[in-house]
Amino acid sequence: MKDILAIIIDKDPTANEVIKQILDDNSKIKETKQFLKLEDGYDFSSTNKPDLIFIDIEYGEDLTFDIISKIKKENKNCKIVLLSRKAEAKLLIKSKKAGSDRLLLKPVLKNDFDDILTKLINEINYKSDNINTKIISVFSNKGGVGKTTISTNLAIQIYEMTQNPTVIVDFNSQFGDVSTFLDVKTDFGISYLLSHKEQINKDFLFSILPRYKDTELFVLSDIFYLNDVKELSLEDVQDIIDALKSTFSYIIIDMTNVYDLKTMKILDNSNDILFPFVANMPNLRNCLRCLNFFKKLGYEDKKVKLILNRVTESDEIKSDTIELTLNKKLYARLKNDYYIVMSAINRGVGISDIDEKSDIANSFQNLAYSLIKDEEE
Ligand SMILES: Nc1ncnc2c1ncn2[C@@H]1O[C@H](COP(=O)(O)OP(=O)(O)O)[C@@H](O)[C@H]1O
Ligand SMILES: [Mg+2]
Predict the structure, then answer these.
(1) What distance in Å separates the CA atoms of residue 55 and residue 77, rounded to the nearest whole number?
(2) Mutate to test the pocket of ligand 1, among 341, 345, 359 (most ligand atoms within 8 A of CB)
(3) Full strand arrangement of the beta sheet holding 166-170
(4) I want to staple 172 with a disulfide (CB 3.0 to 4.6 A). Which of 82, 97, 205, 254 is the partner?
(5) Measured from the CB, is residue 143 less than 6 Å from ligand 1?
(6) What is the dihedral sign for C-alpha 224, 229, 233, 237?
(7) Residue range 38-48: average pLDDT?
(8) What are the structural domains, with CATH classification, of the chain?
(9) Contact 170 CB / ligand 1 (< 6 Å)
């Protein structure tokens, strides 16, 4: 266990003092420094690298977020809690993007605060030598429902928001759809990893896997033109997942349409299964069958998340009918936007690069945010 240094940056002396008192009551916090001025808190943080930082948004959104991203860049392992009187989705997303780890509503209530504090202290102690990986697979036994579109754009958004090493795995085909969607060139794929199992660590993976742009979002796919691509065994699949878990915070998997033992192994390993479908009868029937099947496998209801894709105003089957028929809430709805989705694919970039303000880009941000948030609860 680490002795934790905390700082509070809040220009309201009373609020500042309330937080100080709660921190003082916690035996894991060794020392707490208080600042009323944003610059003073930032200067202290640059030199002393505190573990835990509480920062109020009253200095103005732009300035506060700017300082948060600076702090996070200089001190990647610190935990930042944003203090705010409101918790709108837009603000939450912006604060995540800037690099804050939690949002705490003011006025601060001791019970809420203690909950958050316990989790943060655990993360501070845990993060230093272990990664808490989240595996999200995007699965459907139907083709053309948006699996690759969703997995690639989700991976981009999750990486953008968390800035944590993320990998997208193309278990989908030997035709490298993910690599095309993200415009990366794969020299070493799944088979290469399997033949170098002993060497696998962070440096190795970072050096052989292609990155999306200059980020720490990596792509792992099969390479179809190699003659030696062999059928993966169940053990191979598990080995790959385990190897990736030691390095990446998020593993996003674009799955095949085939439901077999390998698919089952991946789904078993996943924290979340995103199930995309479109609003027509064959898709709905299929969805119902799959949901029943997942239930039989013993998957928790919340593990399987329905994504209604390609939604249009003129859809004959409306979302509420779908929810009634499937007896399950939709986790997300993505608008049909042929132009934006196609240009993103053609240019090998994320949807948000084409039009960050579009509905569909927004939906992906919200989807990424709710998946990240789920894990915190
Ligand atoms: N929300 C959407 N709006 C418009 N077109 C979409 C949307 N989602 C997917 N598409 C299109 O549908 C096609 C199939 O999508 P894809 O992600 O490749 O599906 P899958 O991986 O399930 O086969 C692609 O051409 C893609 O451009
Ligand atoms: Mg696909």
Answers:
(1) 16
(2) 341
(3) 217-221, 166-170, 250-254, 134-138, 272-278, 304-311, 330-335
(4) 254
(5) yes
(6) negative
(7) 97
(8) 4-127 (3.40.50.2300), 134-376 (3.40.50.300)
(9) no
Residue pLDDT, tens place only, 325-339: 999 999 999 999 999
CB 278 within 8 Å of CB 310: yes
Does 336 contact ligand 1 (Cβ within 6 A)? yes
Q: Is the CB of 5 under 6 A from ligand 1?
A: no
pLDDT of amino acid 112: 85
Give residue 130's pLDDT band: very low, low, confident or very high (50, 70, 90): low
What are 245's two structure tokens?
A: 């878990």
> CB of 152 closer than 6 A to ligand 1?
no
Q: Give 206 Cα–ligand 1 centroid separation in angstroms.
A: 29
Q: How far is CA 180 from CA 183, 186, 208, 349, in A?
A: 5, 10, 18, 9
Of 125-139, 244-258, 330-344, 348-362, least confident by mean pLDDT is 125-139
CA atoms within 13 A on the CB side of 349: 12
